[in-house]
Recover the amino acids of this structure.
């Protein structure tokens, strides 16, 4: 998992062809958006996916990027979850990359 607010050094391309961007609802927790976004992207039932806590601490994730704001706009947490690369941004976006998924 990486957390940053500066230049992107992890080579994650959040604008690539194999990425899907979700805008979180105002009151939606970032951790919930990750589960929903990955489930929708992969077509899997969230109840049958590995738990989010196996990839990242949901409370820590929520604390880092919630609430979405201009102050946190450059904040980003990137990690692997159920075969996807996920980037959660402080500006309210959750980006899922499916590259490498069969």
């Amino acid at each position: 998992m990486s957390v940053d607010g500066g230049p992107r050094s992890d080579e994650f391309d959040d604008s690539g062809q194999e990425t899907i961007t979700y805008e979180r609802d105002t009151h939606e927790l970032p951790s919930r958006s990750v589960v929903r976004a990955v489930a929708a992207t992969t077509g899997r039932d969230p109840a049958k996916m590995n738990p989010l806590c196996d990839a990242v601490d949901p409370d820590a994730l929520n604390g880092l990027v919630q609430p979405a704001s201009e102050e946190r706009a450059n904040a980003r947490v990137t990690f692997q979850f159920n075969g996807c690369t996920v980037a959660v941004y402080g500006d309210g976006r959750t980006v899922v990359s499916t590259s490498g998924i069969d």
In short: The chain has two helices and five strands.
